Please model this.
Amino acid sequence: MAKIKRILVVGGAGFLGSHLCEKLLDAGHDVICVDNFFTSQKSNVASLLGRTNFELIRHDITLPIYLEVDEIYNLACPAAPGHYQYNPIKTMKTSLLGAINLLGMAKRCHAKILQASTSEIYGDPEIHPQTENYRGAVNPIGPRSCYDEGKRAAESLFMDYYRVYGLNIRIARIFNTYGPKMHPFDGRVVSNFIRQAISGNPITIFGDGSQTRSFCYYTDLIDGLIRLMENDQNFIGPINLGNPDEFTILELAKLVQKLLGVQENFIFKELPVDDPCRRQPDIALARKKLNWIPKISLEEGLSKTIQWFRQIDISEFRPPTPNY
Model:
C-alpha cells in the first residue's frame, strides 16, 4: 500500500495549484492548500472543501508559516506580466521570501520540496529551443525583471540549500500552460484570446503575432510535476516541463477563432518591452529522467478549455489587477 503523505501546496487555489491539489487528494494524500487569493479564487477549490483530507489556509507566503509536512510544492507567484508588474516589489518578495520561508520549513521537517520555476528565467533566448544548461538572456532592470529575476533567485536559493544542507529539492521550469479553471482575466494569452472571441470582440495581438510560444495542457504539466517530485533517481533538476510544439501567437489566435466558429478579427498593438520573440522547450531531459512527454495537442486542449469557458459566467470573475 502506498504511503499517505502530508503535502503542502502553496498557491494551491490557483489554476495549476487547484488541479494539483485535486490530483494529490485523489491519490489518497492529505493536502494542505495555502493561498493569499491575490490572483486566485476560492471557487477553484470549493469542490474540495468537503473532503476530509483537504485543508485550506489563507496566508501570504512572504510571512513565515509553521506546518508539519512531508512534501512541499511551491507554486506561489502571479504568472502573467500584467499581474506581476502591478506590484513588482511584492512579486519579488513572493519569490524570494516565499522560497526562504518554505526552504526553512522543508529543512526543519526533512521534507522534499519542489520549486515551480518558469521558462521566463531564459528571458528573450538567444538559443532555440531552450535547454536546461542555457543561462538565459534576462534584462535585470527591465519591467519583467521582478518575475524573471525573482524566479532565478529562488532557483539559486534552492540549489544552495541542496549544496549546504543536502535538502531534497526539485526544480521545474514550466512553459506556457493552459486549461479549465484559468482565470478569465489572468492575463495569459490563451485566456485573453478565448475571452475576447467568446464576447464577439477582436483578438488583441501585441506585435505582429510572429513571436512564438509552446502551449502545454494542464493535465500533462501536472503529471510532469508529480513525476519530478516522486522520481526515485534523486534527480533534482532543473528540468523543462512544457509542450515542444511551437506556434506563433497569430496561429494561436486563428485557431481559437476557428474552434469558436467566429470570423477572424484582430487588433494589433505595440509589443511590450522585453517580450520574448521565441519560446520552445527542449524536453529531452524530461523524456530521459521522468519518461515524460505531453500527450494533448493544442487543438484538443483548446477545445476542452473553450468548452469550460462556455460553461462559466465570466461576469462572476473579478480582474485581479487593472492590468489584464
Notes: DSSP finds nine helices and 13 strands in the chain. The chain has a mean pLDDT of 95.
